[in-house]
Write a structure and sequence with these properties.
single chain, alpha+beta, Ubiquitin-like (UB roll), BirA Bifunctional Protein, domain 2, 5 domains, eight-stranded mixed beta sheet, 20 helices, RNA-binding
Length: 639
RNA sequence: GCCCACGUAGCUCAGGGGUAGAGCACUUCCUUGGUAAGGAAGAGGUCAUCGGUUCAAAUCCGAUCGUGGGCUCCA
């Protein structure tokens, strides 16, 4: 006689055990049709699940995030069924739900082709039309192993072997296909349909590179066609913002095959933006009490032995080069160099904290397959800084760093952050006391500024806890750029000291921090964030003067020169082309202001101003325009 | 590093065992036109590199390099 409590607080009494579906039916036929699964006392179950006792129940429909997960998971099964029908020798492995969709890994003697994907997708659609009933059954563990082995599904058998003893082994069947699965699943294949197979890729069994390579098929699935199309549109939007594409069109940077992979060439326009970024970065750092350093690009390998990099980081370092019977190492990091400067003289507690920053270019031999536009490169410039301080100064220094970070990121239009505090991992150096104190200081600093943050327990580096800050871009993607890490290791390895007020020698705390991460990567993110429409203070060309006929050529040049002398980045386009053509071209180049000069402007001594958004601001004097540019530039796009 | 795909003019791409194609960009000429593409002509390519198969290779095969999507990695 189950008494069912619903989320709205209402209750329903049933004479005998009832299925979730029957309960939904009892509430309304519309709900029954939409029922995918249910949460019974907080546990996610199938629609066919029978409730025998009193319970609180929430029906899961496609509108529910959990419903969407069920749809994606069931679509993954649908994919597996279609693959097994078309390619019986393929073995199924795992098929989890991921962000925006799902994938399924198969062991198959060859790679799936795009044509295969089309065939599989078509078969999936047929299976949806057949509206197969999805049913669940439970099997004893040994029986299940034997069952899958008999079917030739070695991987499934292995997976069951890894399921803890005592756990229920459930199988889901639909038509001729049955798969090991925890569930839950949709009641019928007919409720699926808004899906698309996206791509094939290789993936290692269990994600380990020493294991065999499987064929992974990625797909996306949604409650309805409208959501699917919205998602596909979103993907197309993201592709339009691709920094590689925009970088090419706006002539910002390139990667050169003749130079090697992962090495960035900044073209004049990209370099202008970079300089604007760097100038701003330096000014803010000096204002925040940092000293700016320059250090070499190579150093004796023995330095990297001391720092421990040749032990921990060898595979990412370029091979050393030999000179004068000594090995020199291209630097993958700047830290040891800053440490050397620290150690150049005896330090007093009176000097601490010391804040040293450097735009330091480093080289890391990233795996060829990992390279990606500007986002993952082999030579890049870190906006690196190291703060050396006493234990007592940690919290105050972290506060300073957080303030500087949020100020700088905000200036680039990033106002939403996701902050994670990572604590001590199992393998680590340093005493319990220092870890507790340091982690507490990080936490206190975050709380002091009222910042909400997550905690990644055990996610810190072996040498100290850290705070990572992810920024959210214009289309909601998040990127990790900033990191603040405490380091108990390098000061130890290098024997760093300072003389305390009691005359004793103490070890300083070292804080590593980068705000932008790598200039190359941050630039790539900026390009995508602004879709190449850089705010005025960053725009490589802030305004271009366009003459209508040759008669105004001298006047156009005069206007451009005048503004250039006032510090604006100007161009003039005197080509013998129609004004419409020039406007189109420079609008596509995303130049913020187009200054049109014809006979009328020349006579009145004004310019006609048009923005890249297409707004006509009318005529104005050069002085008025300069003032406008000045204040817009100074605001950095903030109101 | 591993799996798959791709590499043709500055760019975007078509073609494909028998003398290399388009659009845009570029150059020259005509046009001097008021807010997103005026017209004509011309120039431009060892078809990524190296090797193999073939009477003949841009095309087929292999290796290398690079690019893309994943995996892995990312103190």
């Amino acid at each position: 006689m189950p008494l069912i409590s619903l989320p709205d607080g209402s209750q329903r009494q049933f004479d005998q055990p009832v299925s979730v579906l029957a309960i939904a039916q009892d509430i309304g036929p519309g709900l029954a049709r939409a029922t995918l699964a249910a949460e019974v006392n907080g546990k996610l179950v199938d629609a066919s699940y029978v409730v025998a006792e009193d319970a609180s129940i929430a029906i899961v429909t496609p509108k529910d995030p959990k419903g969407l997960e069920v749809i994606r998971h069931s679509t993954a099964h649908l994919l597996a069924q279609a693959v097994k029908q078309l390619y019986p020798s393929a073995q199924v492995t795992i098929g989890p739900v991921i962000e925006d969709g799902f994938y399924y890994d198969f062991a198959f003697e060859r790679a799936f082709t795009p044509e295969d994907l089309q065939a599989i997708e078509a078969r999936m659609t047929e299976l949806v039309e057949q509206d197969l009933v999805v049913s669940r059954r439970v099997m004893a563990r040994d029986d299940a192993v034997a069952h899958f082995q008999a079917m030739g599904e070695e991987y499934k058998a292995k997976i069951i072997g890894d399921i803890p003893q005592g756990d229920e082994i459930s199988l889901y069947g639909q038509g001729d296909f049955e798969d090991l699965c925890r569930g839950p699943h949709v009641p019928r294949t007919g409720v699926l349909g808004a899906f698309k197979l996206m791509k094939v890729a290789g993936a290692y069994w269990k994600g380990k590179s020493e294991n065999e390579m499987l064929q992974r098929i990625y797909g996306t699935a949604w409650p309805d066609k409208k959501s699917l199309n919205a998602y596909l549109t979103r993907l197309a939007e993201a592709e339009k913002r691709d920094h590689r594409r925009i970088g090419q069109k706006l002539d910002l940077f390139s990667l050169q095959e003749e130079a090697g992979g992962g090495l960035v060439f900044w073209h004049p326009k990209g370099a202008r933006i970079r300089r604007a970024i760097e100038d701003f970065w330096r000014d803010r750092h000096v204002a925040a009490g940092y000293e700016l350093l320059y250090t070499p690009h190579i150093a004796l390998q023995t330095l990297w032995d001391t720092s421990g990099h040749t032990d921990f980081y060898r595979e990412s370092m370029y091979r050393p080069m030999e000179e004068d019977n000594q090995l020199y190492q291209l630097k993958p990091m700047n830290c040891p160099f800053h440490v050397l400067i620290y150690k150049n003289t005896l330090r007093s507690y009176r000097e601490l904290p010391m804040r040293w920053a450097e735009l330091g270019t480093v080289y890391r031999h990233e795996m060829s397959g990992a390279l990606h536009g500007l986002m993952r490169v082999r030579g890049f410039t870190q906006d690196d800084a190291h703060v050396f301080c006493t234990e007592a100064q940690i919290e105050a220094e972290i506060l300073e760093i957080l303030d500087l970070t949020l100020d700088i990121l905000g200036s680039f239009g990033f106002e939403n952050y996701e902050i994670v505090l990572s604590t001590r991992p199992e393998k680590s150096v340093g005493s319990d006391e220092i870890w507790d104190k340091a982690t507490g200081a990080l936490r206190a600093a975050l709380q002091n500024r009222g910042l909400s943050y997550g905690v990644d327990e055990g996610g810190g580096a072996f040498y100290g806890p850290k705070i990572d800050i992810k920024i959210e871009d214009a289309i909601g993607r998040s990127w990790q750029c900033s990191t603040v890490q405490l380091d108990f290791n390098l000061p130890e390895r290098f024997g760093m000291e300072y003389v305390a007020d009691d005359g004793s020698r103490r070890r300083p705390i070292m804080i590593h921090r980068a705000l932008l991460g790598s200039l190359e990567r941050f630039f790539g993110i900026l390009v995508e964030h602004y879709e190449g429409r850089f705010p005025l203070w960053l725009a490589p060309v802030q305004a271009v003067v366009l003459n209508i006929t040759d008669r105004q050529a001298d006047y156009a040049v005069k206007i451009a020169d005048s503004l250039r002398k006032q510090g604006f980045r100007m161009e003039s386009d005197l080509r013998n082309e129609k004004i419409g053509y020039k406007i189109r071209e420079h609008t596509i180049q995303r130049i913020p202001y187009l200054l049109v000069v014809g006979d009328k402007e020349m006579e009145s001594g004004l310019v006609a101003v048009r923005t890249r958004e297409g707004d006509d601001l009318g005529q104005m004097s050069v002085e008025a325009l300069a003032q406008r540019l000045q204040s817009e530039s100074a605001s950095r796009g903030r109101n």
